[in-house]
Amino acid sequence: MNEQKISAGSYELNQFLQGGYETDIITTLYGPGGSGKSNFCIILATSQAKKQNKTIFIDTEGGFSSERFKQIHNGTKEEIEKDLQNILLLKPTSFQEQQKAFEEMLTHVKKQTISLIIIDSIAMLYRLELGDAIQTSDQEKISKVNRNLANQLRTLNEIARKQNIPVIVTNQVYSKFEPTTYHLPPTTSIPENRVSMVGGDLLKYWSKCLIELQNHYGKRKLILKKHRSLPVKELAFEIIGPGIRKRGLF
Fold first, then answer.
1. Which of 126, 153, 157, 205 minimizes the number of CB atoms within 10 Å of its CB?
2. Class for domain 5-246, per CATH?
3. Under DSSP, is residue 19 helix (H, G, I), strand (E, B) or coil?
4. HSE-up of 212 (CA within 13 Å, CB side)?
5. Buried/exposed 51-80: b ≥16 CB within 10 Å, e otherwise
C-alpha cells in the first residue's frame, strides 16, 4: 500500500522525502535552537494555507511569525490576510495550558476539516514542568508530567492514524556527558558527549519519521534518521526568503 503524503512546502524537501511528509504518522523534527525547526513548520503551514487547508499550529515557543509567513507566501496583502485565517494558532505558555490547547485542538478536529497539525515544540513546556518537579523531588508530579506527555503523543498518534491527518512536531536536544567507565584499546574512540532529544524514548516510540536538524556555524543540514520506506540520508540547506534551498555538501 502506498502511503499518502502532503507537500512539505519546498521543492527540495519534497525531493528529499520523495513526495513530502506522510499523512498517517507523527513526524518529529529535532535539533538545537537556530537549526531551522520553526522555519520548516511555517513553510509547511504556509503551503497548506495557500491551498485553503486548515492547520492547527500549537506554538509553545513563540516561533510562529506572521512576517515570516508573508515572506514565504509572497502574495498580495489581501491573499496573505485571507490565507492566514486558515491557520488556527494556539499559544500555550505552561504545560497546563498545553493540555488545554490539546483539548481545544480535539474540539476543532471534531467540528471541522483539519488538514495538518503542528506542535512547535512538543517538549519545551514539558521540560520546564518536569524540571520543577525534579527540583522538589515530587515523585508523584514527575510521574504525572511524564504520563501527560505520553497521553498527548498517544492522542496525536490516534488522530494521525484514524483520521489521516499529518502531525509534525518539533523537539529540542541536549548534550549529555557520559564518562567512560570501561577500558578500550588505545585506537578505539567513543563519543563522550551525546546529543539526545528531550523526552527521548517517548518521542522515538511514537514518531515513525525522525528528522534531525543541525547548524554548524551557520551551515545547516538535515538528516533523515528514521523513516518507514526511505534510508538514512542527509541534505545540506540554507534558509532564504521564500523558504529553503539546497546547498553544497559540508
1. 205
2. alpha beta
3. coil
4. 16
5. eebbbbbbbbbebbeeebbeebbeeeeeeb
Distance of CA 160 to the CA centre of its chain: 14
103-119: per-residue pLDDT in tens?
A: 999 999 999 999 999 99
Cα–Cα distance, 100 to 90 (Å, whole number): 10
The DSSP call for residue 33 is T
DSSP 177: E
The span from the CA of 36 to the CA of 237, in Å, is 10
Global pTM?
0.88
Radius of gyration of the chain (CA): 19
Q: Indicate the angle between helix axes 66-73 and 37-50, nearest 10 degrees.
A: 60
The C-alpha cell at 28 is 518529529
- Helices and strands, counts by H and E, the chain: 8, 13
Please, which pLDDT band fits residue 200 given cuts at 50, 70 and 90? Answer: low
- Distance between CA 225 and CA 211 in Å, rounded? 6
Residue with cell 519534497: 14
**DSSP per residue over 208-236, as a string?**
EEEEEEEEETTEEEEEEEE-SSS--EEEE
The residue extents of the domains of the chain are 5-246
